[in-house]
Amino acid sequence: MPTYTWDHIHLRSPDPEATAAWFERMLGAEVIRSMQLGKPRIDLKLGGANIFIAPVAAGDAVNPPPTTPYQGLDHFGLTVNGIDAIAAELKGKGAEFTTEPTTVRPGVRVCFIRGPQGVSIELLDRSHA
């Protein structure tokens, strides 16, 4: 069987700068600016993963973001240590929680926050054994 490894997550945003700023401010993502085909490009590095942000302009025939929960890709998850302190810090920054920190099974606490364009982000703390 072939080996698969993660390459990137691709987001679409009407305001890539604001989206990048949110991920940088809330989650400490590294913002990487470059040029591609003569146009500015914004990427992020978060938890070792590449996140590409594509601009969306009026008339691009791009559908609006769905409301969670919905079929298809539902969310992406990030591992953290100390979820309660991290959640308190995120609340102080104005993050919108869709699920407060909760224990889902012995040893695992999770919470969900809403990112730009309704992207659902799960934080998982597996250190509560």
Question: Mind explaining what this structure looks like?
Answer:
By secondary structure, the protein is of the alpha/beta class. It folds into two domains: 58 residues, 2,3-Dihydroxybiphenyl 1,2-Dioxygenase, domain 1 (Roll), CATH 3.10.180.10; 56 residues, 2,3-Dihydroxybiphenyl 1,2-Dioxygenase, domain 1, CATH 3.10.180. Helices cover 17% and strands 46% of the residues. It has two helices and eight strands. The strands form two sheets. The protein has a four-stranded mixed sheet with strand order 1-4-3-2. A four-stranded mixed sheet has the order 5-8-7-6. A hairpin with a 2-residue loop joins strand 3 and strand 4. The mean pLDDT is 92.
Count of the domains: 2
- Largest sheet geometry: 4 strands, mixed
Strand order of the largest sheet: 1-4-3-2
Strand runs, count: 8
Uncertain spans, ≥5 residues at pLDDT below 50?
none
Sheet/helix structural class: alpha/beta
Strand portion, in percent? over 45%
Distance between the termini: 34 Å
CATH fold-type name of the largest domain: 2,3-Dihydroxybiphenyl 1,2-Dioxygenase, domain 1
Question: What are the secondary-structure elements, in order, as H or E?
Answer: EHEEEEHEEE
SSE blueprint:
Blueprint: E1 8-13, H1 16-27, E2 30-36, E3 39-46, E4 49-55, E5 76-79, H2 83-92, E6 96-105, E7 107-114, E8 120-128
Parallel strand pairs: 1-4, 5-8
Antiparallel strand pairs: 2-3, 3-4, 6-7, 7-8
